[in-house]
Amino acid sequence: MSALGHEPRRRAALALALAIALAAGDGLAQPSPTPPPAAPPRPLTIAAPSETTLGNSLRVIVARREGVPLVSAELVALTGAEADPPRLAGLASLSASLMTQGTRRHSAPQLAAAAETLGGSLDSAAGWNHALVSITVTTPKLDAALALVAEVTREPVFANDELERVRTQALDGLKVAYAEPSTLASIVAQRLAYGPGAYGHPASGTPDSLPRIVRADLVAAHRQAFRPDNAVLILAGDIDADAGLALARRHFGSWTAPATPLVKAPRAAADPSSPAAAIVDMTTAGQTGVVLALALPDRSDEERTVGAVLNAVLGGGYSSRLNQEIRIRRGLSYGVSSGIEARREAALLRVSVQTKNESAAEVVALIQAEIDRLMTQPVDAEELAARKTTLIGGFSRSVETTAGLAGAIRSLVVANRPAGELKTRIERIGAVGSADVQRYAAAQLGVSRRRIAVAGEAGSSGKALLATLPGAVTVREDALDVDRGESLSRR
Description:
- The chain folds into 2 domains: 50-252, Cytochrome Bc1 Complex, Chain A, domain 1, CATH 3.30.830.10; 277-488, CATH 3.30.830.10.
- Strand 9 (336-342) and strand 10 (347-356) form a beta hairpin.
- It is an alpha+beta fold.
- The termini are far apart.
- Helix content is 41%, strand content 16%.
């Protein structure tokens, strides 16, 4: 008999088995009215990182993770975009990008090929308060990989042809990004929060600032940032402290700090004199971007943890209040998010939404109302527990890889926090209570400190926006000066 001939018998046998299971009350066949309870958080099983300082002042942090023969290495300089000179926004970012594009010994293709031969990718980038070179390889290849990191760190040439190529790519990226209402609103909101200070400009540069940068600027920025007394080598993975320290000495022990003193970046602070809101009229925009930015002050470890829990409640994830209210209940956006971006002196709370032009004013009001609610009403215990579980789960997943573990340590180092805090993060999140969240919100999220930027076709909701944001500065897209911010001054 053919296979097709057996099909009726097979179906009959399945139907009989299902009928017997249902008659017997088999629990597997019964629908469950509620989901199963969540399992308790798994303990974070990582050893406390070890730290040693070499004779040249380079800090070396080793976080051992046994089980998989991989190591992620990061050489982190503790100077970044906050040190960009006036009118040269994006200098740190461009300088870091070019470090892997050629050294005194190897061209960009040769460096890339060498990293690929080791099974890794050599990357470099810069952000607020840091710039880095990184690679992940198997443990036996770490020695050779660190030789590449050291070469890129200490011997970049910043060739003019590579500068022009990378600059052109960056300008093309900005052209695309600035056409997005949410991107433009985010840049403006950050400027309103910090004004012309160290954190007020776009870290990736502007269409006006990038063409001004010349090779001498790149060399000076690199010399200022990448020096052993301003750097940390992070090794995370299958390596112990002694082996990590021996490799650090081999590849970075001869690195000497220049005789010039380390330049301190200007202290960043919120700008209380800036307008509370700005509306950017993008006449051809199909949607509107709404961004609220709020500069948070210097914070202790406890305050940082409470802030993270507050953000999880407000807009950190699908089940957060903002996403529930704006996306799920009202259908005003495909997604809402908030995040706290850590910086050395402080942090920035940023809420971002993209919506229809006609509903921009309503979205602004909803964001404000949810922040007000955090300030005046305690978070329900069940909601708080769920959001903390989500936060703990996300953190635990993020450090399961060696690259994630190295990144978590870097975040602490950049924020001038001890690397050992990593091991107690879950316990500290669990200890945050509803009263802590309300107290933090009431102290830090007041109306006077909020800065709101709206970018979109202003004609669709102009009157409603001005009623919701009285005193807002209005500027046309073609008149917006994101480099100096003069178009956002009070008028």
